[in-house]
C-alpha cells in the first residue's frame, strides 16, 4: 500500500480487498480508501439501525468495483455516506479518504477525509469535483424546466470556472464524453428517452473530470439493450482512468462491468472477489453470495430461504447464520472479512 | 381465461400507446409478455387488469365481455384479477402497516374479518414475520414491501394474476422467492398468469410461453 491511508490500519486490511487486483498494487495508489466505515441511524424511541458495519475497501484509478446486495442491505447508505448525503440522525465511524491520483496543477492536493469533511468542503471540493454521482433516477435528477445544454453549461461554469465565451464548447465536449448526441442538447428532460436522460446525468457527473464516479443502480428498470449500452459506457469511463463504484442488485450487470465484486449482507461486506473468479468456475465463497448467484433464473432459480435480519436487531454472531446450511456453533461469533471472505467455513481461494 | 382482441389504448386519443394488439391467456396458463421499456406493454397489462379502458377492441375475462373498467367493473370480475406492479412504493398506501396493506382488498368489501386467516397464511408464504407486518412502507425495504404487495394481490384468490415488471427492482433471491410464491399459488388454484417484463431469461424460466411485444397473435 502506498497512499496516505490512516496510520495503523493498512496492515490489517490489505489482504481483504486487493488480493485479486495485483496489477493495481504498486502501480497507482487508491483513489478511494475506506477503513472501518460504520453508519448508524438513531431512530425515535432509542431504536438504533446499524445500516453499515465496519466496511473497508480500496478503489484504484481505472478500476470498477460493483457493490451488490439486496435492497436494504446498506449499499445505498454507504454511497450516501461517501457523498456526505446522510440525514441528520446518522452517526458515522471510520475513515474514507478520497484523492485525485495523477499529478494535478495543484500537486499538493492530498485529498479529503470524507467522513470528517464540512458541508462547505463537500460542496466546494467533493461533489462533482472529486466524486461524480450517476444517480438512480436520471429524470428526477435533471431540472425539468431547463434544456440539457443550459444545465451542462451551468455545471461547467460552477465546477471549472470556464469563461462565458468558452462555455458552449465545454458543455458540448462534456456531452460528447458521455455519448450524449449534440443535436439533442436543446431538448428538455421530458423529451429524452430513459437512455438519453441517463447519458445527460452521466455527462453532468463527468464535467469536472472527477477521479471517482459513483453509479447508484444505473441499470434498474432498463431493458437489456439499454443495460448493455449503459454498462459499456460506464466501463469506458473506468477504462479512461476513473475509479468507478457501481451499486447494484443486478448481478448480470455487475458481471459485465466489474473488475471486482463486493457482496454486502446486513450492512457488512461478506465477500470481495475478482469478478472473473466470482462469476467464473471458482464461484463465490460466501454461502450468501453463493445462494444469491444460484437464485438467478439462468442458474437454479432457487431462493435463499428466509429473510435478512432487521438492522436494528442484528444477532451477535454471523448475520447469515439462520439462513445458512453450513452454520455451526462457531458461527455464534461474528466472522471478520479476511482473505476476501467473512465466513468461518468458507472454502479456500481457488488459487491459494 | 383472458382474451384481448384488437386493443387500441393510451392516454391521448391522437397518439395511442398500443394499437390493434391481441393476446390470449388460456385457463391456468402462464404467458410472458416481453418488450422494451416504453413499448406499451404496461398499458396492455393495465387493460388486462381492468384498470384502464381501451379506446377500441374487446376484453373477455373468464368468459364475460368486459364493459366497465376500474370501479365500473362488476366486483366479481374485478376481484378475479390480482395485480402486482414494478414499484411497490407507488402501489402502497404509506399510512397502512404491511398487515393492513395485505387485507386492504378485503377491507374494501367488508370481508377483512373473514379473510384474516387467509391474510396470515399469505404473510407467512411471502416470508413476512410479525415485526415486519407492524411496520409501514417507509420502514421496510423495497423487497419487503413487494412481498406484501404480492400477498395482497393473492388475497381474494384471483383466477388471473397480472405481474407488471414485478421483480425489476429486486435482487436475484427475492425475485426467485416471489416467483415461487406465485407459482405455488397457481398450482393450488389453477390460476393463469400474465407476466410482463423485459428480462427474457426470467420470463422463459417462469412462463409456459413467452410472446414478444408488440404482438399480433390471437
Ligand atoms: S460464518 Fe457460519 S453462518 Fe455465517 S456464512 Fe459462514 S458458515 Fe454460514
In short:
The complex is a heterodimer of chains A (352) and B (218). Chain A has helices at residues 10-18, 75-82, 119-126, 138-141, 148-160, 164-177, 194-206, 224-239, 251-257, 275-279, 287-294; strands at residues 32-42, 48-59, 64-68, 90-98, 112-113, 131-134, 212-216, 243-248, 260-265, 268-274.
Q: What does this molecule look like?
A:
- The complex is a heterodimer of chains A (352) and B (218).
- Chain A has 352 residues and is α/β, with parallel strands linked by helices.
- Chain A has a domain at 27-258: P-loop containing nucleotide triphosphate hydrolases (Rossmann fold).
- Chain A is 30% helix and 19% strand.
- Chain A has eleven helices and ten strands.
- Chain A has helices at residues 10-18, 75-82, 119-126, 138-141, 148-160, 164-177, 194-206, 224-239, 251-257, 275-279, 287-294, and strands at 32-42, 48-59, 64-68, 90-98, 112-113, 131-134, 212-216, 243-248, 260-265, 268-274.
- Chain A has a six-stranded mixed beta sheet with strand order 6-7-8-3-9-10, with helices on both faces. Chain A has a four-stranded antiparallel beta sheet with strand order 2-1-4-5, sandwiched between helices.
- In chain A, strand 1 and strand 2 (48-59) form a beta hairpin.
- In chain A, helix 5 (148-160) packs across helix 6 and helix 6 packs across helix 7 (194-206).
- Chain A is globular, with a radius of gyration of 20 Å.
- Helix content of chain B is 36%, strand content 22%.
- Chain B has nine helices and nine strands.
- In chain B, a hairpin with an 8-residue loop joins strand 1 and strand 2 (18-25).
- The chains are: A alpha/beta (352), B alpha/beta (218).
- At the A-B interface, helix 8 and helix 11 of A face helix 7, helix 8 and helix 9 of B.
- The structure holds iron/sulfur cluster (SF4).
- Iron/sulfur cluster binds at residues 287, 318, 320-321, 324, 326-327, 331, 335, 343-345 of chain A.
